[in-house]
């Protein structure tokens, strides 16, 4: 006889690495608390997701062979995903209707509000999962509500949000002052709020002590439950057995060479460098960062995608190829494992929200090199609010970071001086607060328990499954 659960939640991520990871982690958390959790993901990403706690089922974005790469148009991809995703999500819900575990709730990436319409049309509950910080969500909420109009100009700043320091143009998502630069992406960000009033729950990958004032300030427009950080349990509370990774990778993993190399280095001596899966640096930017790392004198482990490797200066590549004593360049590695190593003393990062939460959760000081979107706001918080790192200053003419600035920032974080020690102390504090939030009885754990209990009550009331 098939096992019955206290409810069945379908979790629907936007099909990119930075969105799959936190939603899959949330699915694992729900499964660990007695719910049946199913990840509904596109055919292209299906084989990259695996977890013993979570079932994985396909839906279609209309580009089953290569996903977004097949179309290379944000607007066409999103329209196709809405049409095909709505149809195939409906099919998935109906498929489970006559089983012992019918679907009772759809948790969907906030980028995909059409999923809530599908849930309601099929008589089940639903709610969005916001993958950005509460502060970034607040900015877009105010724009959606008409408090601020686009494009944002210098005279509109600073943007003031309760619980957030004044935000200047360089602290705001990059395309708000040039909305025509990414029209489809901007539309998607604002559409997150289009049917929010119909949602039964709203989830955010943050935690109370980190952003409670921000959430309180926009609770009327965005009554979210903070359930983060959605980082594998092994690095926080250890409550989910064997949970050492997200369980999803769109890239081929390497061997354990990175780990072995780090084990040869003294504590707090290595700069771990990664700019995420979406950022593409120019050849000039790669050159400045490369020689900045070399001139800093610190050891470094730099993740450079194969498609970006040709941008590295040849002399720098020759140095790291011939002698890996000081530096190692790899195309992929498990970021959490790297950040968890004692030898890593600094994280040179693009300040994407997942990477920011990982840096905070594992207690690693950061040097922010934000490039676009929410990364600029995250970098502001890293430096001026949580004070767990510094942000590079870009050249006023070229808009690029210079090698001298890279050296300056790495020294500030890594040299063991007063500022360095303050940063290390602060990030250690946030590491403990992140662990506290997700551990049993913590604010995020209580919010998740509240959701689980509400589904159990729904399940009992409607007699939808054997509870």
Automatic annotation (TrEMBL):
Q: Which domain of life is it from?
A: Eukaryota
Q: Is Signal set as a keyword in this record?
A: no
The entry's keywords? Glycosyltransferase, Transferase
The answer on whether this UniProt entry bears the keyword Cytoplasm reads no
Q: What GO CC terms are in its UniProt record?
A: cytoplasm
An MF annotation (GO) of this entry: quercetin 3-O-glucosyltransferase activity
Q: What is its EC number?
A: 2.4.1.-
Q: Which Pfam families match?
A: UDPGT
Spell out the Gene3D superfamilies in the cross-references: Glycogen Phosphorylase B
Query: What PANTHER family does its record include?
Result: GLUCOSYL/GLUCURONOSYL TRANSFERASES (PTHR11926), UDP-GLYCOSYLTRANSFERASE 74B1 (PTHR11926:SF727)
Homology family: Belongs to the UDP-glycosyltransferase family.
What is this protein's record name?
A: Glycosyltransferase
Which species is listed as the source? Helianthus annuus (Common sunflower)
Question: What are the top taxonomic ranks of the organism?
Answer: Eukaryota, Viridiplantae, Streptophyta, Embryophyta, Tracheophyta
């Amino acid at each position: 006889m098939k096992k019955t659960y206290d409810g069945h939640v379908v979790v629907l991520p936007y099909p990119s690495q930075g969105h799959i990871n936190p939603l899959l982690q949330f699915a694992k958390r729900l499964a660990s608390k007695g719910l049946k959790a199913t990840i509904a993901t596109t055919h292209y990403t299906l084989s990259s997701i695996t977890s013993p706690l979570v079932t994985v089922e396909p839906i279609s974005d209309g580009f089953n062979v290569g996903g977004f790469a097949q179309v290379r148009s944000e607007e066409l991809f999103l329209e196709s995903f809405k049409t095909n995703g709505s149809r195939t999500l409906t099919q998935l819900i109906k498929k489970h209707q006559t089983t012992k575990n019918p679907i009772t709730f759809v948790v969907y990436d906030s980028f995909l509000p059409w999923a809530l319409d599908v849930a309601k049309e099929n008589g089940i509950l639903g709610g969005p999962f916001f993958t950005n910080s509460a502060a970034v969500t607040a900015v877009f909420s105010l724009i959606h509500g008409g408090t601020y109009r686009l494009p944002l100009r210098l005279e509109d700043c600073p943007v003031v949000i309760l619980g957030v320091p004044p935000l200047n143009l360089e602290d705001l998502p990059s395309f708000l002052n040039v909305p025509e630069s990414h029209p489809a992406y901007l539309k998607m960000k604002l559409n997150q709020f289009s049917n929010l009033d119909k949602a039964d729950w709203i989830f955010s990958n943050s935690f109370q002590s980190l952003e409670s004032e921000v959430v309180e300030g926009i609770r009327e427009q965005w009554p979210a439950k903070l359930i983060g950080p959605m980082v594998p349990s092994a690095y926080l509370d250890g409550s989910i057995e064997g949970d050492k990774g997200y369980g999803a990778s769109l890239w081929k993993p390497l061997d354990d060479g990175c780990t072995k190399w780090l084990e040869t280095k003294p504590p707090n001596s290595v700069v771990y460098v990664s700019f995420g899966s979406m950022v593409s640096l120019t050849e000039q930017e790669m050159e400045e960062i490369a020689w900045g790392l070399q001139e800093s004198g610190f050891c470094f482990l730099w993740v450079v995608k194969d498609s970006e490797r040709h941008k590295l200066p040849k002399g720098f590549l020759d140095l790291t190829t011939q002698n890996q004593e000081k530096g190692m360049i790899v195309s992929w590695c498990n970021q959490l494992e790297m950040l968890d190593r004692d030898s890593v003393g600094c994280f040179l990062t693009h300040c994407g929200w997942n990477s920011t939460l990982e840096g905070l959760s594992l207690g690693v000081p950061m040097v922010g090199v934000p490039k676009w979107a929410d990364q600029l706001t995250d970098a502001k918080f890293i430096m001026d609010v949580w004070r767990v790192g510094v942000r590079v200053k870009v050249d006023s003419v070229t808009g690029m970071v210079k090698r001298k600035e890279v050296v300056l920032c790495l020294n500030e974080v890594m040299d063991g001086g007063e500022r360095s020690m303050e940063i290390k102390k602060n990030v250690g504090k946030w590491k403990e607060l992140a662990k506290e939030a997700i551990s049993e009885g913590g604010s995020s754990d209580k919010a998740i328990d509240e959701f689980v209990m509400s589904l159990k009550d729904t399940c009992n009331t409607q007699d939808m499954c054997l509870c």
